[in-house]
Amino acid sequence: MRTPLSLLALCASLLSTPQAMALSEFGIEGMGVVSTKANEAQATIAPDGQRIVWATDRASGAGGWDLWQAVLRDGRWQDPTPLAFNTGSDDTDPYFSHDGRWLYFASNRSGGRGGFDLYSVAVRGDGSFGPVMALPMTINTAADERRAMYGLQREEYDAKRSANEVAQASVRARELDLEFTRVTAPTSGVVSDRRVDPGNVISGGASTADVLTTIVSTSPIHFVFDASEAQLLKEQRQSGKGGRVQIRLQDEAEYRWNGAIDFTDNALDNSSGAVRMRAVVQNPNGFLKPGMYGKAKVEGGQAYDALLVPEDAIVADGARKAVNVVAPDGSVTMKTVSLGPVSQGLRVIRTGVRPDDKVIVNGGVRLMAPGQKVKAKVVKIEPKAAAKTTTTVTIPVASSATPASGR
Question: Global pTM?
Fold first, then answer.
């Protein structure tokens, strides 16, 4: 027998059903699937949001009010089908349990306690339903048992779930407090002495927090230095990127520490005209300590071929620098040269001599006058093996000369 429901009662049922409110999430795509010209009421959505079950009196059901279901596919409710356990009686008020393992509903089917009784059916893993079971007599009575009982259970479940979430948050807070009792170093390095004795009360979490100790990372270590604007321009024009750096400490005569520039500041200091640069230096034995001072020289440009002579071969001619060159007839000619940096203990000659010139490197250079005849002997210039190489060089053939009158 079909039980008529008034429009007012239907609207009240929909408004009082929390699960039915979820239908608004899917817009009007339920039209023609969940909503038809028949009466549709009291919907419930599975916890995973993939299935909806509702009561309807559409004519294609078993009779009376039946339970139907649809699945969510491509964002729309599709494939409406009646549930297999519908009877010719009224089956209404569907409700999924919070874990989705049970579907509860009310029915006035025969075999019950009287009026509408509450039933449950298990939801299997494949989505099918198990056998229908009536709830115990402590719940079902000769009166009508309807959805209000589920509303009470849902409220109780929501309250307990909220209390559980609060308890879990409290547990996480206590776990975090426990973690704060153990301070781990964010980096490896050399630790200083302790600043606080065991048992003392300390404060943390602010700029005024107590310092327990300090840790410095020493391998690799950063060497920070200032370079002039001219040096910066030269480095950028020649290499265009960070180059190599050689460093010597205050008590060292040679540049024995090597590093690579990994940072150049984005602006020059207006007051000094210098730019801050930083190099990474390997320090495996921890010899270098933070706060040490040293002198650095930056390798400019790429490797290049150059002419090199010993410092003793260079003659000071007033403000100029020159070298004595032996002509093919044995006469001495002084040539002004432009000097470069020292490499491998030898001085780089930028301009002034050719690779085939015979430069006098020993034999009383300063005593020779221009045009004086000498007897030259070709010798090989040996670089200093202990010096560090910053460029690839070609060492020219030079001359060892003695005055012609000294033969």
Answer: 0.39
